[in-house]
Amino acid sequence: MKKIYYHLISLILMSSMALSCNKYLDIVPDDVGTLDYAFRNRNEAENYLFGCYSTMQRQSDVIYNPGFTISAEVVYPVLETQFFNSTGFDFIRGTQSSSNPVLPKWGEMYRAIRRCNIMLENMDKPIDLRDDEKKRWTAETKFLKAYYHYMLIRMYGPVILIKENNPVDVDVEQTKRKRATLDESFDYVISLMDEAIPDLPPIIENRAQEFGRITKFMAMAVKAEMLATAASPLFNGNPDYAGYKDKDGRDLFPASYDAQKWNKAAIACKEAIDECEEQGLHLYTDVPTSGIGNDVSDELKKVLTLQNIITQRWEENPELVWALNHGFNYQGYTIPKLTTLAIGTSNSHPSNWAVPMATTELFYTNNGVPINEDHTWDYTNRYAIETGDEANKHYIKQGYETVKAHFNREHRFYAAIGFDGGIWFGNGQTQEANAYHVQARGVTGIAGPKSLNSTNITGYWPKKLTHYMSVFDAQLTPTNFQISLIRFAGLYLLYAEALNEAENSPTEEVYTYIDKVRERAGLEGVREAWSAYSRTPAKPTTKDGLRQIIRQERRIELAFEGQAGWDLRRWKELQSVLGRPVQGWNVNEENVVSYYRPTTVIIPVFGLRDYLWPLNNTDVVVNENLTQNPYW
């Protein structure tokens, strides 16, 4: 079994290539001289190929990923002065419109598709390009072309398929293309993936120069995700879109549910898993050693392992299936102020990305079942005050008053969530006995609100998005990392989901792949945990019950990784999630009883129409063959 490193395009490589190919990114088809120059030899053509990759890089910046900002997993306050583009976070406040869509991708993706078509049309021109390179570059370009179409499909539904660019002398009326049906759209991207996969390399051999180039296992995992999306309730016989037609009277959405779509997704997931395992991928289980003293408990080791799944360097992470180069540059928003010196950095590092209470309550008890199902856990009195004790000292500051909801939770809760009284290991402190804890109550709390800019409006921080070796004191010194687009645990759970949906009742293999993820989290298997601790012990034995379990497992395991927004959409659950007020604690209060009162901070606005993005009104006016999306 080969040992490989998993990676995506390095910043230095992409920066240098972007500089060399910027002049080609906006090539117009009739600029023959420029095109000839762009493909005059292998080096110039390779620069153009990386221009095709360039659009992909921006998608790894979480603030431009609707799956991250529009899920209400993390919320952001409304400020007079914004420190980054907060448009995506504002979506849940009802800012979506057809006159000015939030985070639109329509034009951006079609420009990227056009570049890919130009690349494919000119692949034969470089006379010094070897045949094996031509096959690989063609496969990479087809992958990118398929993925850019897919990004449009999951946002807009049926799309215009740009299989070839228009010729330079085309009549303007022929440029006004129609949307394909949803099934045609998915079929096309899958066909492109099937064409690309055989000619992609199994691994990247030349890591120094080819970090981030697409491999076979990456493409197979993406294909599995595409098929699972096509099979999901939003797109598979959704009655909300029944009878929605284009201007020629064609139904754009499938009229009925097709169970075979889940079979196809399950097969693709298993093939992707097998290929990943063949290339050495596996779940990350290492205990980090850098910046850690000798007195670290087993409890803290487990928390750090789970936290490090995300923050581990990608070339050392065997779980990373696909990531992009763009680093996570927002640790100044995800880490609370832990020292008095950090208080003076409120404007540059405001610590104000907040986790809603509902997100924190997704995480299981330490028995591995939901908090409202565990018959040994006091759900009714979860907001009662309790003091940190010896038994919980690895997670909660001993002697500190907090709420019962923070006690006896699974390790992923403590790895993912920062809370008042919670232990925050790291930040330059290497000894567990001297670990920091969060003090969030009122203005006197070090992490408490000091100004509008530096207020965490719920009292919870996405700890998972902070490297334990990052130091936030008089200034922020981050240890950088990238967030994956697909990791192996997510692929396991996607396979379990597809299998469960494809069969009439749960099979042994479904449990196997859920339990692989749970075991790494330190939990018993699904059937064992529910049988021993749940008020509904038979829940995992039914298709509907196991569906609920798998979906919650995905939301826990992949929390804050930009997946929840897409999952909740395809499951048609986002309207339910955003149909409830976003709540947190009464963060301006210093008194413990006053602080721990659930407080509404946002009333989300999300309707049925918001599952799909609207086309910009201007595009619909310019191209009369386009039909606006349902309910817009």
TrEMBL record:
Domain of life: Bacteria
Gene Ontology annotations for the cellular component aspect, listed alphabetically: cell outer membrane
Extent of the signal sequence: 1-20
Residue ranges crossing the lipid bilayer per the database entry: none
Domain SusD-like N-terminal: start-end pairs: 100-222
Keyword Membrane: yes
Keywords of the record: Cell outer membrane, Membrane, Signal
Domain RagB/SusD: residue ranges: 352-632
PROSITE patterns documented for this protein: PROKAR_LIPOPROTEIN (PS51257)
Family: Belongs to the SusD family.
UniProt xrefs under Pfam families: SusD-like_3 (PF14322), SusD_RagB (PF07980)
Lineage of source species: Bacteria, Pseudomonadati, Bacteroidota, Sphingobacteriia, Sphingobacteriales
Protein name per Swiss-Prot or TrEMBL: RagB/SusD family nutrient uptake outer membrane protein
Subcellular location, record wording: Cell outer membrane
Species in which this protein is naturally found: Sphingobacterium olei
